[in-house]
Design goal:
Rossmann fold; about 200 residues; 9 helices; 4-stranded parallel sheet; single chain; protein phosphatase; alpha/beta; Ptyr_pPase
Length: about 200
């Protein structure tokens, strides 16, 4: 299984997640990238220090998210809901495999299927309306998809916090907390993907 972890600059959270999963040696192919990443930047100094403390090897250089990476991935796991939304807006066609790390491991498949179905119906209604009005629909689509949007809001309100803490610019203790949070959810990820393999 090919897994792509995504954060903002690809110098803290997503490369830490990549290194942790690679260290677990569970038969995954793993890469990481950033929604706004530059090319070739090293892992942040604090992230590197924490990885060394934990004896997790990493030789990381940042890379931006590309269509090729998204195509390569069987599963795209972002660090926050904002990263997920940014990817969905920038690149369409990957919704079926795009989740935050935490929501992927914490939310039941039934709830996901319902959400995906609702999102698809909203998108269908928006596309149909756009074709009928030659693209000029403003917020008309929201009224057209009101029931679906209300149910989406209700389901999403019941979901847990799906964001991984951002340590950028913080002291080393925050990086350690982020490492422990990533480790917890990556262990859950391994368990969930083992069930599906």
């Amino acid at each position: 299984m090919n897994i792509l972890f995504v954060c903002t600059g690809n110098t803290c959270r997503s490369p830490m997640a990549e290194a942790i999963l690679k260290d677990k040696n569970e038969g995954f192919d793993v890469q990481s990238a950033g929604v706004f990443a530059g090319e070739g930047h090293p892992l942040s100094a604090q992230a590197r220090e924490v990885m060394e403390e934990e004896d997790v090897e990493t030789d990381h250089h940042s890379q931006p998210v590309t269509p090729e990476l998204l195509e390569w991935a069987d599963l795209i796991l972002t660090m926050t809901e904002r990263h997920k939304q940014a990817l969905a807006m920038q690149q369409s066609g990957y919704e079926e495999k795009l989740f935050t790390l935490k929501e992927y491991v914490l939310i039941s498949d039934e709830k996901w299927e319902r959400l995906k179905s609702l999102y698809s119906r909203v998108e269908e209604k928006r596309n149909c309306l756009s074709q009928e009005h030659e693209g000029d629909i403003g917020d008309k689509w929201r009224e057209e998809a009101r029931e679906e949007l209300e149910e989406i809001e209700e389901i999403e309100a019941s979901l847990p916090d799906v964001n991984i803490m951002d340590p950028f610019g913080a002291d080393i203790d925050i990086y350690r907390k982020t490492y422990r949070e990533l480790l917890e959810y990556i262990e859950l990820l391994i368990g969930k993907t083992d069930e599906k393999r």
